[in-house]
Design brief:
The chain is of the alpha/beta class. The chain has a domain at about 5-275 and about 390-405: TIM Barrel (Alpha-Beta Barrel). Helix content is about 30%, strand content about 15%. It has helices at about 30-40, 50-60, 65-70, 85-105, 125-135, 155, 175-185, 220-230, 245-255, 275-285, 335-345, 360-365, 395-405; strands at about 10, 15, 20, 45, 110-115, 140-145, 165-170, 195-200, 205, 240, 260-265, 290-295, 305, 315, 355. The strands form four sheets. An eight-stranded parallel barrel has the order 3-4-5-6-7-8-10-11, surrounded by seven helices. Helix 2 packs across helix 4. The protein is globular. The two termini are about 30 Å apart.
């Protein structure tokens, strides 16, 4: 019986273990996690979600503080249109995060950065251009375009000297989305180097409707996309993502024709993951009924998370002066609208609950939005329950090797520490 290690992901003459760890923000897919995956021969992601905030945390910069000081006069104002990001600082933060990670890279693998289109930052085109260019400047091996159609993202990079050198890919959840992307970028004579097909069992934001996500499945979508690529004579690696919990799950997809798998949920409980230890224990303890897909994200995308996430229903005051990563070009955000609606009903800010949306920036910064994959409830079966009622933390190497070599649907438990 074949295992994942019997396959290789090929980029030209380069061969990698066909395991990719997805780019979980904000700093959940940490540099430490990405570096370990690259050392083991796979592809690790870091995320540029809220990258000035990540830089402050990792490198003791003051980008968030400086931004708040500049705009604190506006804190009580429901109109956030004046709040802008300093593009020079945004570039500096991205170069720090990506550059330091790349400097530390060892092994035969690669490190990509996950770049969300939905981080509109009150200047969507300008801020996206800066984030993409700064990542390329810092030497990242590749960029995965996520959370949006990214119809113009390649055009934002076409003048960069690494546009045809770095590996550039797109996450899609349907053939139609891929076709739109391919056709939009045909004039650039630059096809994506890889396509991540993310199914409805993935964690975090989903590329499906809140009412109909259950009608889709990853195997069907990947087969449809692989078939269309063959008809179009496009030789682009397809990567399956979402709900791939064991090495046997992964090898079955590889046998079906995908070039690699992207996984994340099992790495959320590794010591290299950026989640605090207490939150990792919440993931371990989750049951199947503790998971929901809801519409509280201001992005408009459905989002899968644990029902016990402190972000759900939390009516905190919007802090766009410090964060503001989801502000549209007019300074609006769905959470601001929901918050102001509730504030008009109950003028005491300390008592407000906002059930339909969440302040995603603050909640992700504070690790209070516990996004997860569908099979998070199986994590308890991957480790040991300790005498104090907690579960033993895993190493990224242990999880990676289990994906790489396991067969027969088995999950290897770690040595008891």
């Amino acid at each position: 019986m074949k295992c994942v290690d019997d396959y290789r992901l090929r980029f030209g003459k380069r061969e990698l273990v066909p395991i990719i760890v997805g780019g979980m923000g904000v700093d959940i897919s940490s540099a430490e996690l990405a570096l370990e995956v690259a050392r083991l021969g796979g592809i690790g992601h870091i995320s540029d979600a809220m990258v000035p905030t990540v830089s402050d945390r990792r490198f003791k910069t003051k980008f968030t503080r400086d931004k708040f000081q500049q705009f604190k006069y506006n804190f009580e104002n429901p109109d956030k249109s004046a709040v802008q990001f300093n593009l020079g600082q945004l570039a500096e933060a991205t170069q720090l995060h990506v550059g330091r990670t790349m400097e530390a890279k060892r092994g035969d693998g690669m490190i990509f950065i996950n770049c969300m289109e939905k981080l509109t930052m009150n200047a969507a085109k300008d801020t996206l251009r800066v984030r993409l260019a700064a990542g390329l400047d810092a030497g990242v091996d590749g960029i995965t375009l996520s959370a949006g159609l990214h119809l113009n993202s390649f055009a934002l990079m076409e003048d960069h000297p690494r546009f045809r050198d770095a590996k550039l890919g797109i996450i899609v959840s349907s053939l139609r989305a891929l076709q739109l992307f391919i056709r939009k970028n045909a004039r650039l004579n630059r096809a994506p180097d890889f396509i991540v097909v993310e199914g409805p069992l993935a964690g975090g934001h989903l590329g499906f409707g809140l009412a109909d996500w259950q009608q889709y499945d990853l195997a069907t979508i990947t087969a449809e996309i692989i078939g269309w690529l063959r008809i179009e004579q496009l030789d682009i690696p397809v990567i399956a993502a979402g709900g791939i919990f064991t090495g046997s799950d992964a090898s079955a997809y590889l046998a079906s024709g995908v070039a690699a798998v992207q996984v994340a949920t099992r790495f959320t409980v590794t010591s290299e993951c950026g989640l605090p230890a207490k939150v990792r224990q919440e993931y371990f303890k989750a049951g199947e009924d503790d998971v929901e897909v809801n519409g509280i994200s201001p992005t408009g995308y459905p989002m899968r998370m644990l029902k016990s996430s402190p972000a759900i229903g939390d009516g905190i005051r919007p802090n766009c002066e410090a964060y503001g990563y989801l502000l549209d070009g007019s300074g609006n955000c769905a959470y601001i609208t929901a918050y102001n609606r509730e504030l008009a009903i109950q003028p005491d800010p300390k008592r407000i609950k906002v059930l339909d949306k969440t302040c995603l920036c603050t909640q992700m910064h504070d690790f209070n939005c516990w996004t997860c994959g569908h099979y998070v409830y199986r994590l308890k079966d991957t480790s040991h329950l300790l005498a104090d009622g907690s579960y033993q933390s895993l190493s990224a190497e242990h999880v990676f090797r289990d994906y790489q070599f396991s067969v027969d649907g088995k999950v290897a438990l770690p040595p008891i520490i």
